[in-house]
Amino acid sequence: MSTLTFTEKEKRALVALIQEQMDTHLSRFPFARYPVYPLKEWRRLLCDPDVITPPLLKQILGWTFGGWQRKDLYSAQSSVVRTIIKLWPEFIKKMPPTPGDILQFWEERLTDWTNGFQAVSFLLHLIHPISLFWLNSLMSTKSPKKLM
Asked: Is the terminal CB of the chain with fewer CB neighbours within 10 Å at N or C?
C-alpha cells in the first residue's frame, strides 16, 4: 500500500483549498435562522412539558419554520403554531407515551398536516431525540398523501 507524502507548503495549500470550499458551502446555510444553542435547553425543558409556557412554545415552533429572526411567520405556519399552543394543555394531560402516539395525537387535531407535521416532528425530536430513526422508518411506510 502506498502513502501520500506532502510538503508543508502542499499541506497549507490543501488546507486553504478545503477551507475555501467549506466556507463556500457553509455560507449558503442560514445559521441566523436556525441557531443551535437553544435546542439543548428546549430538550431539557420539554422533559417537563407542564413548564412550557405559550410564549416559549411559540418560540420553539417558530424555530422550526425559520422564524427565529423574523417578526411574523406565514399565515399557515402561524395557524399551526396557534393551534398547537391552544391544544398544549390537552396534549400534556394525555401525554401520549410513544412517538407514534404523539404523531397520531397531533395528526387528528391539526387540519394543515403539511405544516403541522413539520412542527410536530420537531417537537417530537426535542421530546424523544432518539425517535428520529423511528420517524424516518415511519415516513418510508406512510403514503405521501397521508403526510400532506
From this structure: N
